[in-house]
Request: fold
Amino acid sequence: MTTPRKPHVRRQYWNEPTMGWWERSYLLEVARGLAITGGVFLRNMGKWMTGRKGALTAYYPEEIRADYAAGNRGKHILTQRPDGRPQCVACNMCATVCPAQVIEIDAAFDPDDPAHPKYPSRFEIDYSRCVFCGFCVEACPEDAIRMVKETPDLPGFDRDRMWLGKEELLNWQPHADVAKPYPVRPAAEPGRSPDA
Amino acid sequence: MNAPDFAISLVYIAYALAVLLTFGAILTWVERKQAAIMSDRIGANRAYVRIPFTQVKLIWLGLFHGMADGLKLLLKEDFKPLAYDKLAYALGPWLAIVPVLLVFAVVPFGGTLDPGRLFPSLAEWFGGRTYPMQIAPIDAGILIVFAFSGITIIGAMLAGWSSANKFSLLGALRAGSQLISYELVMGLTVLGIVLIFGTVNLGTIVERQSGTVLGFLPAWGIVYQPFAAVLFLIAGIAENKRIPFDLPEAESELISGYFTEYSAMKQGVFMLSEFIEIAVIGALFVTLFFGGYNLPWMNDTGFVFPGGHAVPLSHGWVVVLQLLTFLGKVFLLCSFQILVRWTLPRFRWDQLLRFAWKFLLPLAIANLVVTAVALWVQQA
Reply:
């Protein structure tokens, strides 16, 4: 005695067409579609003719996108002491943690600043290989390297042009670039002279 | 043919060629820019011409991209497939572009030109003769149009067949059946216009559209035959093998259809003929349905507005206005065709033929019958 099998029902993988008479008449819907695209064209054309921008795309690289997320990891910046020297102490922790090994630092000795005798005489990042992981920012003990939301604008035909040195990395606007307060006021520690 | 007639004919031919080739070149740019603006983009804007010995770069909204394309096509390798019919392969592009250019010969692009009044110093030479602004003012106008536009089918089919490529052959077959189907629809829609104006001479058809209907409407063909206008435009876009009717060159199915095996400027000629045909279809539509070179309420002596107010114009101004009116109308029609091309998705092959034979053809015949009955009632 076998159990009666359920009759096989072919499974339907598609949706029933939902077009009514209006859609099926085609020409009327075509007219509607043309009205929509033509309306978009006229609206955008009107914007261009009156000197506004009628497009959502940005001119790259002349124009910087306005809608980068606030937390976007873009170009690196080297934070500065109030006198303009880099806050970096050339400890090489960022270069060590960097998975793409794109950070090159040459350390030098500065006898005039006994609190921070070690400083980077050369600090270069190769943006042709950088993966923008942000590990350097995490690793830095001095808050000397941060990332702004704008990407480095380095389009070119040559990999050698995609290195940024200390001069380019140091030009940052504390108020616009990163929302963190600067300089971070160090807690008064005995035996350590405050900066400046 | 005497010397003045010959000179005028040469001027007309030069003008027509200049207009058509300029339209062909400009429309590549218009197509890119209009598509970009329709989809919230900026469009081609990088190619530039640098003035020699300076750093001044002329970009002009990307107008030079067409030049860059042409230069690239000219400099590309002229690849030839291994197995091909040499003569047919070479003839293909020419049979695609020459008939398109020839169609323009019977299209009137302006009113009547009186060169003696334009250039008084040459008045004696011309001896008071006037010339309709049309390269070939012959009676068989519309018939010539259909004869020549039928030849483009042979061009597409020869190109596809001689390439010895299965995709090309499929494209050629599609081109053949599609063009023949839509040629029929086109002919039947134009018959309505022929019935109303009582002639196939395009010059006369345009002249009869210069008055007004009901006192204020311009007496254009589209007022008498709105359905025929829509059907004619659809059939025209289908003749031109553009989206949504680009089955012969459907790139997602047939690589690029009947001109798959063509490279370099031979392929460029196919593209150029497509863009020129946009302008030619626009010109035909304007001639048949949009009053040709006529501005509303304008005749050969100036404007006469519906209120009875008249603004007389000199002959030179009338000629310039008529030429510009024609060009402007044709440009608007071209822009509309590009709008259609960037709005609609492609038909499926069976839908395409069903659309022609089961929808457009009955509509065209119905339009013809209604027109004939209405005319019969009116004359009885």
Q: What stands out?
A: Chain A touches chain B at residues 26-27, 30, 33-34, 36-38, 40-41, 44-45, 48, 54-57, 59 (CB under 8 Å). The CA atoms of residues 8 and 59 of chain A lie 59 Å apart. The helical segments of chain A are 21-24, 27-49, 93-97, 135-139, 166-170, 174-177.
